[in-house]
Amino acid sequence: MVKKIVNLWKDYKEDMGLGAMGLAIIFFNTLLFILSGLIFGPFNFYCLIPVFIYLIFFYFRNLIKPQKKAIKFLYSIIPLSLAIGLNYLLVGHIDRSVGGFPRVDRVFVDFDNWLFGLQGAQFIWEYTSSWNEVMRLFFYDYMVLSYMSYYIMPFYFGVLYYVNLDDNEKYKIISYFSTINLYYGVNFLFYLFIPVTGPQYYLEEIFRDPLPLSIVGNFFYEAVHSAQYTKIDCFPSGHTGIAVLVCLWSFYTKHPHFKWCLFLTLSIMLATIGLRYHYTLDLLAAFPVAILSFYLGIRIFPEKIVVLSQKSNK
Questions:
Q1: Domain range summary for the chain, segments of one domain joined by +
Q2: Alpha carbon of 226 to those of 80, 182, 229: distances in Å?
Q3: Rounded-to-integer distance, Cα 239 and Cα 262, Å
C-alpha cells in the first residue's frame, strides 16, 4: 500500500500531477474531516466529497496517461479546481453546522481605525466623494472587475506558463499548481481557526449606502455578493494571496506578463478594501502565507523553475 502511494506521487511526470495533487487533497480533506469532529463539532462527511471526486478521476487515470500532454494538463486541473471550490464551501458549511464560530473582527476593525482613523473602505469612499459621478462610477466598476479577475488569474498565468514550457518540460506545471493548492489549504485552515466575517457584514450599519456602480458593475457585484455562502473567509485574503503568488511566479520565471500581473495584484488589493470585503490586516497576512506557499510548494517536487529568459537565450 505504501509502495503504491509512493509510486503514485513519483508518477507526476506521466499524469501531469493528477496522482500527487490527489494525494494532497485526500490528506487535506481527511484532516478537515477529523477537525470537524474533534474540534469544531460533529464529524462532517461532506468533507470527504473531494476525496470521492478524485477517486473517480483516478479510476480513469490510466486511460488519460497515453493522451497528449494538453489533455492530461486539463484532466489534472479539473479535479483540483473542483476540490478547491468545494473546500471553500465546506469551510462555510462547518461554520453553519456549529451555529457560527465567534467572529474576531474587532481586532481588525481597531487596526484599521488606528491606521486610517476610520475603516479602509470608508477612507476610499470619502476620498472619492468629491469626484464627479461618472469618474466615481468608473472607479468602482474598475474595482469590481479587478475583484472578479481573481477567479481567472491563477488559470490565466498557469496556461501562459504551460504554453511557454518545452514539450519535454510540460509536466513541470505541477510545481505551479502545487503552490496554488498549498496556499488554499493553509488559507482554509486560517478561516476555521481565525473566523473573520469582514466589514460588509460586521459593520453593516456603517456601510448602508450602496456602491456607485453601473449596470455591468452591479451585475458582477451582486453575483459575488449573493453567492457568498462562506462568511468567515477574510483572514488572510485569498484574493490577495493568490494574486501575490501568481506575481511571484511571473517574477521568478521572468515572464513578460509580470508587470500586468503586478498591476492586477495591486488592483485586486485595492478592490478587496474598497468593496468592503476585507480589512487591512487580511491583506497584510496574505503576503507571508503566499511567500511560504511558494517556497514550500516548489520544493515538494524536485524540479527547477523554468526561467523563460534563459530559454530564449539558448
A1: 1-100, 101-314
A2: 25, 28, 8
A3: 13
Tell me which residue has cell 464551501.
89
pLDDT tens for each residue of the chain, 314 residues long: 556 666 667 788 888 889 889 999 999 999 999 999 999 888 999 999 999 999 999 888 888 888 899 999 999 999 999 999 999 999 999 999 999 999 999 999 999 999 999 999 999 999 999 999 999 999 999 999 999 999 999 999 999 999 999 999 999 999 999 999 999 999 999 999 999 999 999 999 999 999 999 999 999 999 988 888 899 999 999 999 999 999 999 999 999 999 999 999 999 999 999 999 999 999 999 999 999 999 999 888 878 888 876 554 45
Q: Which residues contact 251 (CB under 8 A, 6 or more apart)?
A: 258
Q: How far apart, in whole angstroms, are the C-alpha atoms of residue 188 and residue 232?
A: 10
Positive or negative, the Cα torsion across 123, 124, 128, 133? negative
Cβ neighbors of 111 (< 8 A, separation 6 or more) are: 279, 280, 281
